[in-house]
Amino acid sequence: MLECRGKGCLVLVCLAIILRSNEHYGKVLAMGIVHRVRDCPRDEKEWQKASDRLNCTSGDSSTMNKYHCLPADNLTTLLEFCYTRTRTQVVEGQCMVFIERKHIVNNYDCSMFKEGCPNIWYFMDQMYRFPACFEIDPLLHCYKAEATCQPTTWNVSVLSDSSQSTFVNKTSTNLTTADRNNREIDPLPILLPLIGILGIAVIIAILAWKNKWRRKRFFGRKETGRPDGNDEELRAFEMRPIEISQPERDDEESRLLGLEVNEISQPERDDEESRLLGLEVNEISQPERDDEESRLLGLEVNDIDRLGIDYLIHNLPSDHRTFPMIAEKLKIPQEILYWSLKNREKFVRSMKVGNIRVFNGRAMVIGCARAGKTTLVKKIKGDKDLTTTSTSGIEIHSHTFKLNSDESTIIVSTDEEKEKGCLCLAPGMLEILEENTQETSFGVNVNVVPDQSNVISPREENHIVDKASSLPSSIESTLNSNNDEVVDDTDPAVNESDQLINNLTAAAYVSAGTDRSNATLEHNIDLNDCVPSVNRDNLKMLTLLDFAGHSAYYACHHIFFSPRAFFILVVDMTKDLSTVATEACRKEGLIYSNWTYADYIKYWLGSIHTYSSKVAPVILAFSHSEDNGADPEKALQYFRQICKCLPQNLLDHLDKRRIFSFQKQSEKNVEDFKECLAATVKSQSHWGERVPISWTKHEAVLKKLKESNNVVSFSDLLRYVSETNDRKRNKEEDLLNALIFFNDTGVILFRSEIKDIIILNVQWFVDAFKHIIFDEIHMEVMEDMRDFAEFQELNEHGLLSSKVLIVLWQNSNFYQHKNSLVNHMKHLDMLAELSKELWYVPCMNKQKYPWEILNNCNVSSRLCFLFEFLPFVIYHRLVVTCINKLGMTPWKISERMCIYHKVTVLSYKDHRVLIAICDNKERPHRNFPYSIEIQINVTKPREIDTRLTSKLKEDIFERLSVLTQGILSSEFYSYVGYRCRLETFGKNVESHIITEEEMSASEYDCLKCSHPHIVHVGSIRRFWKKDEAQTHLTVGSRTSSSHPFAATEEMTNLNRVSRLMLGPCTEQLRDLLRLYIPPASFPAVIQRKRSQLKRLTEPQRKLILPNSGVYSGNYDDMDISLLYILLRNVCGIQAHNKGWGNTPDSADISVSANIERLRLARNRCSHTTEGMSNVDFNQVWSEIRAAVVDLDKVLGIGNKYQEAVDFILNDTMDPVKDKHFRDQLLEQIKDINDIRKKFERIEGRTKKMMAN
């Protein structure tokens, strides 16, 4: 009875709500139905037609229900309606606007209009007399007549989500008459009561069903104490995919997620088991995290709400923990928040021009060899033939799947849909873009791709893309558009360049006799038909990457572990986690050789934690579950076993609701799995983020180029993009930002530090590396080939010769792009360049380290970097980066390089650096069971230079930080320790790691060893700690920061570049002048060419054209400024494609282009007074080095000046020498300024003479 009364009360409450809503709705309708329009009538006749169309009152006799057409108060769109109240008289100097959310009109002061502001009193329904009150810029939210309103290149009415009303009809005035008449029928008064009645019926049905279900469960428990084992409850126990973003779950949802009744009612487990199960820890919605989010965001929320996208152009919080939450609130890519203010401002400008939302997911299928990864991919694709072969490398299934219409699951895309890019225009953008193609600075053309569906809803048809209120994408890249270029000393027609400096100088080595760049296009391409596509079905795509399980292929996996990805870890359910996974690595003696299945799972999750995200979701797929019939209970038990093997922080990636088991010949759980994929991809923070609409054009160009090219240079791509439009301002920055985004989303491979090389075909690049890192199975096919010994060098020692590379790549087009591919692999730390004909591939090395080679050496203590999971790829990359970037070379004994599977010995400045990876499974190291260890050694009786070792510690510290923290982090690696004994690495002496925190006292009592001993901390740390003299000097220098030569890192960078320019670079230009004009011939040549040298300074003229006699020197007394003048004007060197005095193309490696680069670098250094940041230093240094390398080839002197450049990079800087070089540069700057003044005086006199 009580229950019936409760239901009756509920019905009455619902009816009251409906009546209340109808009452409110009536108030809304007092304004009439509001329609969005593109323009308002401009004369009385058109105004009357619009009034008749909406059935508004006509004639002067009536003052109510008059037709009105006004801008919205936020100035984003125009609105028309019948104003049912009395029309208002408006005073002069005022326009009128409509406040949509309050359904009232308001005045707007137009005194700032340049023209068109009403200068008389008028009635509100007579606004057609003042067209300026209608003309708005919807992107800038201003009237076009206002002086402060600068028109944008997109003259469209872009609608903001935040301004849309529930009762707004989104049609426009250009509809047909039939459409207009249809709008007169108001369905809301009919629909609302019907919806209310249906809602009451649904509520009653739900209450009745829940009551019945609860009673059934209650009596079932009372009788049996546990649920029935019938099929229905068994199905209820099966794990279903869930909406991860859903914060609340009722009992029914928990039941469907696998929380069966008997599990809920069983006795509570101990703390350890609860931790392992992750039932409480891994709940997606955690109150603690919400509290933390609120605490971290603080007042930022108000600023974000107030400023919208403009929030990015202000100073951001120093606490980077707020960045994910800020990005989510703004719906922008998180990477933008790490950019400089200058780059964020550029991005905001691009976004305000126009933006689109991106729905493109990326899933990585990972796991051991023969786990069933490829079979699983085939099953979800719906393939009937499940026959598979061993995957080598990575198979990329681009856009293979899409979300279905209600976004509840994934389905296979059609071939046509797979060809669409990740940036597709919404249907409503078609008309807008067609109208504005000629006006936009991005020159976007649009091509409508035919759709598979024949039905398009009016809502989709009339949809208009939203204005940029939030957005960005990708990682920071340093963009420098400063125009601090050197004044041309010789050509009066050349002034300081106004062009944007192209900082993306080609870094790829181009051998003599080849084309100007290996990244140039194979042939000209017609881009006239290169257009972005339109998705009428609002496609939301998912790309799958299937990774090879053999350990040899792990070297390239980290490249694809994007922060935007989620992961599918496939595990063979029949395998005991404690048994050795022989399928993944068959060779004995390797670090992988004795790995168990649990070790591999821990490795995969650790790699995700390092290279993707610390919270990246992982879906567990248990294969080969035929024996248990894919029983979810068995899957849950196996999941618990896995959790027991993992450290706490890796459990954050797992969730018991994301586990599924599969049978090869059964479809069981496949649909649930696909639903989970859809829910997971939608839960990611980047899903639906906004990017500039100009990037759709960039992606279309990349797709077109990819049809016939696998690699392209940045300069060529920039040229193609620029040719689409005459407006080239900010083209380079916009393209660079877009490329970084496309790299993050897996469309291309691009690194700003590699500069000019863009890999268009990612699968092609993977296949190229796959041909190099074959495993034991794929090695068998090469045994019958000639020169098999050289293949053995690669397979056993990791030494890749140019001869072997030719054979490996001969049957493909890889070799013709050899330089581009190898250079990209170098910068991704996949291989190290030992010479122009030899490379080292660490992941192929299988040699055992003989510690006896260091028997006759003095050794340092061992510096240890600690890890929770095996950092084998990090170890490989550290070795490569030490060779490629720190100038180290493999140490040789008896002409054999000392490079081994787990140990590498490198030579560095009369010392040797041992880098090793260790597996410390002893109990004292259970929190950090793995370490990368560094030890310095020299041959006896030499002593180790502790100044060098302390600098090495800093360098390696920084390199490891980059390798382990990923692209979004700027933190240094913090887990550091030392071995307790001073012994040669590999010697069979027991030792343990002591962390830096444990070494606070002068002595440490080591109880970790089986025989306790005292460790003298000073003797261990002295090798890695700066001595007192160094520390004192540094502190003293910094305290005297007012001195112009205070020892700061920025000033040291600047002084190092100055030293390079005034030393090796100047000497190289002298050698170049000697090549073209031998000193003995110089007097005769200079006499013939003296007419071309009118702009010499007085000292320069006296030097080479003395009043008496002739020049008799050997060019050693010429500075870089004079050398540039002579090389340009006297030597007959052909000008580069941009002309002398201008910045050359990045891919131009001509002699004149490289001379120009040295001039520009020298001037950039000269114009800098505040020092040079590390980012600028690395960029300038790489540009100088590339030019020096090319000029060395022209001189035919081997690597003479290249070696000098590398030496200065790593040499110590002396303060006395720094001041000397700085003084020289300042003197040269003074000379340049004198030249400038003289030139200006001459130019002024010339103009006066011409005027007279």
Automatic annotation (TrEMBL):
Keywords carried by this UniProt record: Membrane, Transmembrane, Transmembrane helix
Limits of the DZIP3-like HEPN domain: 1092-1220
Coiled coil start-end: none
The protein, known as: Uncharacterized protein LOC111112614 isoform X2
Organism ancestry: Eukaryota, Metazoa, Spiralia, Lophotrochozoa, Mollusca
Superkingdom of the organism of origin: Eukaryota
UniProt-listed Pfam families: HEPN_DZIP3
Ranges of compositional bias, category Basic and acidic residues: 241-255
Region: Disordered, residue numbers: 241-273
Keyword match DNA-binding: no
TM stretches of this protein: 190-209
